[in-house]
Design a protein that fits this description.
alpha/beta; Rossmann fold; 11 helices; elongated; Arc Repressor Mutant, subunit A; 238 residues; 8 strands; three-stranded antiparallel β-sheet; five-stranded parallel β-sheet; 2 domains
């Protein structure tokens, strides 16, 4: 059985959770340094592929987790959000928006934690393993990004380049407004931005890209799929 990875900013705070997991015969690696590596390393997927699950500590903010998840597109790894208390209904419901599969909390009874982990990890094993970097709807050869960008308007191309150049492919509405119009958001510009993103999504779909490649991050902005970032990186190298 592969180990679990517990990402945190404070090792001392995780001692009780580590003891519980060891008691349940789970091998767990707790790290502060890996949080830093995942933010900067070019081999992020290789860093995490040996783990069956990643637990994000309550010491990490939701925004920090969002930025890390951009580079953790391994469908086989189960993602847990750790709380310092039993999460409320609202907190549990927000986890899917954050990208988590499930949750655990400090002080959780051992028998409940045992069954909760076993069931969540068992469900993940039934997920379809998607190893293809990019999926296409069309049978013909896919467009290069250069070909795709050639079919965009100037404003669409500028927005797309902004997303490609942003940290982890995630950018706030405020940053995007400043980049496109040189000033902060207004009701009119927010509306224009929404229309702009819909057009980009539609053009990606028309170009033959099967998956949703531009995601709306609720309450924040927009995020590119890691698969598109990976595809873009490969094209630059070539």
């Amino acid at each position: 059985m592969r180990p679990l990875l517990l990402l945190t900013k404070n090792l001392l705070i995780e001692q009780r959770m580590q003891e519980q997991l060891h008691y349940l015969n789970y091998e767990v690696f707790c790290s502060v340094e890996l949080v830093k590596q995942l933010k900067t390393s070019l081999n992020r997927l290789q860093t995490t592929q040996s783990y069956q699950g990643i637990i994000f500590s309550e010491t990490l903010s939701d925004e920090e987790i969002r930025k890390l998840l951009v580079f953790l597109d391994n469908k086989e790894i189960v993602l847990f959000r750790k709380f310092g208390h039993l999460p409320s209904v609202e907190e549990k419901e927000s986890l899917s928006k954050l990208g988590m599969d499930s949750w655990i909390y400090d002080g959780q009874p051992a028998d409940f934690l045992r069954e909760h982990l076993a069931e969540t990890l068992r469900r993940s094993q039934k997920k379809e393993n998607k190893n293809v970097v990019f999926l296409y709807q069309k049978e013909s050869s896919p467009q290069t990004l250069s070909d795709f960008k050639a079919g965009l308007t100037k404003k669409e191309c500028k927005a797309f380049d902004c997303l490609l150049g942003s940290e982890g492919g995630t950018i706030s509405r405020e940053e995007l407004c400043n980049y496109l119009w040189g000033s902060g958001p207004s009701n009119s510009r927010m509306s224009q931005m929404s229309v702009l993103m819909k057009r980009l999504k539609k053009k990606l779909h028309t170009a033959g890209f099967q998956e949703e490649l531009i995601e709306t991050v609720w309450g924040y902005g927009y995020k590119l799929s890691p698969k598109l970032l990976q595809f873009y990186a490969q094209e630059v190298v070539e």
